Amino acid sequence: MASVPPAAAQDRLIVGSREVGAIGHFGADLGPAPVLPWTPRFGGERYVHDPERGVIDLRTGRTLPLPGGFPVAYDRARPRVFMGRSDGIWAVDVSTSWSFLVLPVSVTGLATCAHATSADVLFCVFLRSDGQHDIVRSGSLGPVHVTTTPFADAFAGNWVVTPDASRIYFKHCAREAGTAPPYFCVEPDLGMVDVATGTVATAGIFDPAASMELVWDEVHDRVFAVGTRIDVFTRDLVSLGSAATGGRCRNLAISPHTGRIYLNVHDYYYSAGWATLSAYDAATLDPLELGETRTTNAGCPVALVSAPGRPRGVQVTVRGRDVSLTWTNIGAASSFVLDVGFAPGRTDLSLFLGPEPFARFTGVPPGTYYMRLRGGNEVGGGRSSNEVVVRVP
């Protein structure tokens, strides 16, 4: 993006094959969805990967080629697809077709990969012959081993990594059945890996729902485990509460831009063709609508398309007349704007930045500056971060 528009974007909610109202006419059927929820979006919501058509540029409608290999992960902020090949995993920029090797490892035993957007780190899980899993991440000097999980069936379900690459959350098995791998998990619950230390902790949910889904709340640093009930935990697995969901199929999406949680519950056995859609405030977890809205939708998967949230954790370092900034990208912004003023709340200069969550300026004139960051993507602009005061001697 050449610029970031003001923060006025609305959430777009896709349930099954239909787009429904997210705010205003909540739950209203708005017609066929332009993109199905299971087609991965990346590059700041600009690109989708349709397995049948290839990569589609939603801005231009063009179909872009992907080189050989198979996709293992997507960069939500940048126009990149991570492709597995015989000599390792490559990052492919679909806008230029330029690629580079991210993980020079054999893809034998590769189970799944995930990308930490803000830190720009790729994590991959490899299944071992003893039923355990090795987790490795990309690094400047080559692959870095994070940990080996002692849990059978650890990554058979959903797993998430935090944008800053500090935590990994996954469905692990507290009790399994069988005498040889692969084991059958009968008591899945929530596990967490501290990437810095490689230590593993568990939450003890013991949810028998095989479809347990994990969703990371980027704004509030929480993880949601969605199954026969919803369990909410802090980043260190301190319980924040739980609630029953019902239904046979449950999907949850959290908007970094509007602060809404959307929950869709579908019961294939007792109300075929109907789904129950609810909205909640992400900060308080209170319902936002009066009652529940039913949609005549035959599908369960939910996808949320939104502008990014406020950049968080803005840190400033001043060395002489050099100023460096770092922050966390919330909601996959594909570009940023740094607003600078000579008084609190004022904007005297706006600097347009790329998708990386850092910037460095040299030769800054002495003075006191008031800075705010805001991100944007293909949907629209996000809200500004908290203001930081920078004094250059």
What does this protein structure show overall?
The structure is a single chain. This protein is mainly beta and about 400 residues long. The chain has strands spanning about 10-15, 20, 30, 40, 45-50, 55, 65, 70-75, 80-85, 90-95, 100-105, 110-115, 120-125, 135, 145-150, 160, 165-175, 185-195, 200, 215, 220-225, 230-235, 240-245, 250-255, 260-265, 275-280, 295, 300-305, 310-320, 320-330, 335-340, 350-355, 360, 365-375, 390. The strands form 9 sheets. Strands 3-2-1-28 form a 4-stranded antiparallel β-sheet, with no helix packed on it. The chain has a 4-stranded antiparallel β-sheet with strand order 4-5-6-7, with no helix packed on it. The protein has a 4-stranded antiparallel β-sheet with strand order 8-9-10-11, with no helix packed on it. The relative contact order is 0.14.
Question: What is the structure about, briefly put?
Answer:
With 393 residues, the chain is mainly β. It contains no helices and 35 strands.
Structural Rg? 22 Å
Distance between the termini: 34 Å
Main sheet: which strands, in order across? 3-2-1-28
Unreliable runs: none
Mean pLDDT: 86
CATH architecture of the largest domain: 7 Propeller
